């Protein structure tokens, strides 16, 4: 009887261990440490505390998903670059929307010498991903200013919302572009580009027209397609650029100044 009681006590102790310990009962649990919460807000504060120059130089990378070794190699390459202010992760942080995937990628990204900010990808919306993303990174649509630029991050993962006509949030996008009294470069960042089948086809033209009607929008940045692209898809003066995935071992370096920009491809 004593042996049975000891076995029961041991079993009870084991099942009460938190998911940070021996067992994780549900892969959809969202248990974050304080230093894993509201990362976009925290990193924007770090970015805006940096000295501001006439030019801004940042990295666009994305689609880490299951490519953890390649993402670690990206860190080494990114840290070797000069005069970088921050890194933008263009979405698909995770593959299956699991909190542990977000945690693993954040642990890798912590090795960067620079702050990093994110936009949500379609794989990040799978399962419990939106809840994880909101707790770890913050709002799905947000913006901030740095130097001569206004960076606008918007959720364009229309398919995950059954093409309901609400994603992307075009009224919000219009308001963000309008709220630019000093005519900073307006740089829109999203995961799914409008010419992709995962973008709501009924919203594609309006989205493109919104960007083209703003003289401060010269180019816009995306991930998702796992390849480099740099094209004027709508013949309206706005260039649409995509960066490749970590699996393909590449990223972009973007340099901006008042009314101008330069983009470099890097393979590692």
Give a written overview of the molecule.
It is a single chain. This protein has about 270 residues and is α/β, with parallel strands linked by helices. The chain has two domains: about 1-25, no CATH class; about 30-265, 4-Layer Sandwich (Purple Acid Phosphatase, chain A, domain 2). Helices cover about 25% and strands about 20% of the residues. The protein is built from seven helices and eleven strands. Strand 4 and strand 5 form a beta hairpin. The N and C termini lie far apart (about 65 Å). The model is unreliable at about 1-25 (pLDDT under 50).
- For the secondary structure, the number of strands is 11
Note the quaternary state here: single chain
Largest sheet: 6 strands, mixed
Any idea how many domains? Answer: 2
**CATH homolog superfamily of the largest domain:** Metallo-dependent phosphatases
Q: Helical percent range?
A: 25-40%
Q: Please state the average pLDDT score.
A: 92
The number of helical segments is 7
The portion of residues forming beta strands comes to 15-25%
Side-by-side strand order of the widest sheet: 4-5-6-7-9-8
The CATH topology of the largest domain is given as Purple Acid Phosphatase, chain A, domain 2
Indicate the CATH class of the largest domain: Alpha Beta
- For the terminal residues, how far apart are their CA atoms? 63 Å
Shape: globular
- Structural class by SSE content: alpha/beta
* Radius of gyration over all CA atoms, rounded: 20 Å
Uncertain segments of ≥5 residues (pLDDT<50)?
1-25
The run of helices and strands is: HHEHEHEHEEHEHEEEEE
């Amino acid at each position: 009887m004593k042996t049975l009681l000891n076995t029961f006590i041991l079993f009870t102790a084991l099942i009460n261990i938190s998911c940070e310990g021996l067992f994780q009962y549900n892969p959809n649990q969202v248990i974050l440490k304080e230093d894993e919460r509201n990362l976009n807000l925290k990193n924007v504060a770090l970015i805006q505390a940096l000295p501001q120059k006439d030019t801004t130089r940042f990295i666009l990378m994305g689609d880490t998903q299951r490519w953890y070794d390649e993402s670690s190699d990206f860190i080494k390459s990114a840290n070797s670059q000069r005069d970088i202010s921050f890194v933008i992760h263009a979405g698909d942080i995770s593959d299956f929307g699991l909190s542990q995937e977000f945690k693993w990628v954040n642990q890798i990204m912590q090795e960067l010498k620079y702050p990093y900010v994110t936009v949500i990808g379609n794989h990040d919306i799978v399962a419990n991903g939106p809840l994880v993303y909101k707790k770890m990174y913050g709002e799905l649509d947000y913006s901030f200013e740095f130097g001569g630029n206004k960076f606008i991050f918007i959720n364009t993962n229309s398919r995950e919302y059954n093409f309901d006509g609400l994603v992307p949030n075009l009224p919000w996008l219009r308001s963000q572009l309008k709220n630019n009294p000093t005519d900073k470069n307006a740089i829109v960042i999203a995961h799914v580009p409008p010419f992709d089948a995962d973008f709501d086809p009924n919203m594609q033209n309006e989205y493109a027209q919104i960007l083209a009607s703003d003289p401060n929008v010269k180019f816009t940045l995306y991930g998702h397609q796992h390849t480099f692209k740099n094209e004027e898809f709508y013949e309206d003066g706005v260039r649409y650029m995509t960066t490749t995935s970590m699996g393909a071992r590449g990223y972009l370096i973007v340099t901006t100044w008042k009314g101008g920009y330069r983009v470099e491809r890097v393979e590692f």
